[in-house]
């Protein structure tokens, strides 16, 4: 599994035309990265040196040298993924011919979503985000559509350990709560699409108020990923826009579980009693 290629594919649709040319060239002829200087790569791809630099930054690297290092590290990495299980077939919902093929594809895309998101895991960013959440006066969580499912899951988990956390599915209530956010608070944004106007309206309000901002979103060079204090990337092999978002939900839930476990682990002395209390009340015999 090539995580650099996954980054390229995740960001591809949001790239300008000149950077798409770079992406197409790399996906077809990645070995050229190690054979030619940037001047020749620009000529061979019909672009410019600046386009190559912007492209590398758009998919999360400091520049072309950093991108080359990532490719080299992957090529020599001892981390391997077993070549087992069903393969991804890029079909839309109306193209399946059997229930088995549907199950195979859902399994394959879900597994790959978790694996590629895991390989994008940045322990340093995660560590800092966990510290901010633990020490926040209030945590406000935002997510709409399918991203709202993962947002709600994190809300329930933090509520169980007695954190001061807020989540609303209603946009008007979300706007009301974000209007009261402050520098001591943390705002967490779940988004499948950084162009979502509702999320960006909430993000801008939280940012302007000085709150710490955390995004769980796809790779891409956009206002959410560039302006957010901490970005946790979730990537997934979606099939087609008509199919709806499926595997991305698994990628986000993987990050939710990792985030919650890290918070509970680090703050265990303070939250242990709340875990015990919630366990006890759910374990009590139900009234006849």
From TrEMBL:
Domain HTH rpiR-type stretches: 2-78
Start and end residues of each SIS domain: 129-269
Record keywords: DNA-binding, Transcription, Transcription regulation
Any one GO molecular function term: DNA-binding transcription factor activity
PROSITE patterns for this protein: HTH_RPIR, SIS
Keyword Transmembrane helix in annotation: no
Record GO biological process: carbohydrate derivative metabolic process
InterPro entries: Homeodomain-like_sf (IPR009057), HTH_RpiR (IPR000281), RpiR-like (IPR047640), RpiR-like_SIS (IPR035472), SIS_dom (IPR001347), SIS_dom_sf (IPR046348), WH-like_DNA-bd_sf (IPR036388)
Name of the protein: Transcriptional regulator, RpiR family
